[in-house]
Design a protein that fits this description.
This protein has about 475 residues and is α+β, with helices and mostly antiparallel strands. It folds into 3 domains: about 5-300, no CATH class; about 330-415; about 425-480, Arc Repressor Mutant, subunit A (Orthogonal Bundle), CATH 1.10.10. The chain contains 15 helices and 15 strands. α12 crosses α15 and α14 crosses α15. It is elongated, with a radius of gyration of 30 Å.
Length: about 475
């Protein structure tokens, strides 16, 4: 987000995460994506009179595990509350949520970028039930109609609310990336943006840099991609700056981001918390969270995403983007560790090949590492052949393709395909002298200072050797031969 004189943005993010449970939060209906509309319902999730909720224990477990992974403080007693509002997608006229309590408070998410690491504090982590899905953008829906699919009604959601401490769209993106990986790693959600399992609401206000009080806050709801979130925040910052610069007043509204126009559009006046008339849910007792249960969940946690990224950067010399790929691509962390140990050389070489040529081959084949025959030892042996000058990079890529398809020993593949690099000094010298005789003009140009002419001699030698001549030795020998009186 561009700096704009003395004005700055203050951003808070509310992320709704669908928990990875088989059933809904307060009934036994399946919690799955893609079923025919209104086929996964019952009296409870349809809000029929007389129906009563029963808490899904797995949803509680996953929510607590997420709160622990974010370093939250865990209360011993957590009530449920009713959030009251009228909307067609809310059949009961209220949503069961957690307002006066939460599963966790005062956590944080550590993120990373090329500059290093940063932290965004988390206010709270709480549970609530999802609403029905309003359908209007489907071919079977007439322009003037909105249909409702209640399959999603009652699906367990976890809301992660950050404090308003984020200062730019770029920082918001890094926070969301780190949060998403943290939740995926502990197994609480797939965090699939396309399926609506990870939905982002943003709050943004603009104020003077030296001003303590925040500016008037607006909310942008239901952002379903990182690109949309960044675009919405960038646009809304510039819009609010324009309003303030013109002497106007930013209105407290709820906005929708239009991907087609890359602009925010007001949908309604933003509600205050008092408008929801929160009160304790009378049909559900408070959750009692024991210390022993929390300790049991804590033992299931591993190092957080930022810890893994930091190790990859410090131990293997990876950039922030490379470390992110290596840490979170299935099979890559263990492959890198084993490959670097087997290679024995600079770790950076293993990183280069893994994030470069190996990844390119996998994409072309539409496979992951487990779907190939490449082993850490095989890649390490190939890198040692490169170090020894037995193979050049283009030929090594041919060998890599065979290793991924068929496995085997790189040295044997090299010999079978006739790809072993020519590094014999006497042979290289003979080739250079032949090239010089065949290209007298190039020789004259090189001697007169036109170094580009060197390409003609190198190209001649590579053609004669089918690309097997050691390019470093070729260039060194050209300089030596042409320096002769």
């Amino acid at each position: 987000m561009a700096e704009n004189d003395e004005l700055e943005a203050t951003i808070g993010l509310e992320v709704h995460v669908q928990l990875k449970t088989r059933s809904k939060l307060f009934c036994g209906c399946a919690s799955e994506f893609g079923a025919p509309p209104n086929t996964l319902t019952c009296p409870v999730c349809l809000g029929l009179p007389g129906s009563l909720p029963v808490v899904n224990g797995e949803a509680i477990r996953l929510g607590l595990k997420a709160a622990l992974a974010l370093g939250c403080t865990m209360p011993a007693r957590v009530p449920f509350d009713r959030k009251n509002y009228f909307y067609p997608d809310l059949p009961k006229g209220f949503q069961i949520s957690q307002h006066f309590g939460a599963l966790g408070f005062d956590g944080e998410v550590e993120y990373w970028d090329d500059e290093g690491f940063g932290v965004v504090s988390v206010e709270r982590v709480h549970l609530e039930e999802d609403t029905a899905k309003a359908v209007h953008a489907e071919p079977y829906v007439r322009a003037e109609e909105t249909l409702l699919d209640f399959n999603r009604s009652g699906v367990p959601l976890m809301e992660v609310v950050s404090n308003p401490v984020i200062k730019s769209a770029a920082e918001a993106r890094r926070y969301i990336v780190a949060l998403r990986y943290a939740l995926i790693e502990v197994g609480v959600s797939d965090c699939d943006l396309e399926k609506g399992a990870f939905r982002i609401d943003t709050n943004i206000s603009v104020k003077k840099v030296d001003q303590e009080a925040l500016g008037e806050q607006v909310e942008i709801k239901n952002l379903n991609s990182l690109k949309a979130m960044e675009g919405a925040l960038e646009y809304e910052f510039e819009r609010q700056v324009g309003v303030l610069r013109a002497g106007g007043r930013v209105e407290r509204v709820t906005l929708h981001y239009d991907n087609a126009t890359s602009k925010t559009v007001a949908t309604r006046v933003k509600e205050l918390r008092a408008d929801y008339r929160y009160f304790a849910e009378p049909d559900l007792p408070p959750l009692e969270i024991t210390t022993s249960y929390v300790d049991e969940l804590r033992r299931e946690l591993g190092p957080g995403p930022a810890t893994r990224v930091r190790e990859l950067r410090e131990r293997y010399g990876a950039t922030a983007a490379e470390a992110e790929m290596l840490a979170f691509t299935p099979g890559y962390p263990d492959f890198l560790k084993a490959g670097a140990a087997a290679y024995g050389g600079e770790h950076r070489a293993v990183v280069n090949w893994l994030v470069g040529d190996v990844t390119r081959e996998l994409k072309e084949r539409g496979k992951d590492l487990g779907g190939t025959k490449l082993t850490p030892a095989g890649l390490a042996a190939l890198l040692r052949l490169l170090d020894a000058g037995d193979v050049n990079v283009p030929a090594a890529r041919e060998v890599l393709a065979v290793l991924m398809s068929s496995g085997g020993e790189p040295a044997n593949i090299l010999d079978a395909k006739g790809l072993r690099q020519i590094s014999d000094a006497d042979v290289i010298e003979k080739l250079v002298r032949e090239a010089a005789v065949a290209n007298p003009k190039a020789v004259a140009d090189i001697k007169s200072g036109k170094e580009k002419a060197r390409r003609a001699l190198v190209g001649y030698i590579m053609k004669e050797t089918n690309g097997r001549a050691n390019p470093t030795m070729v260039n060194e020998m050209i300089s030596k031969v042409l320096a002769e009186p």
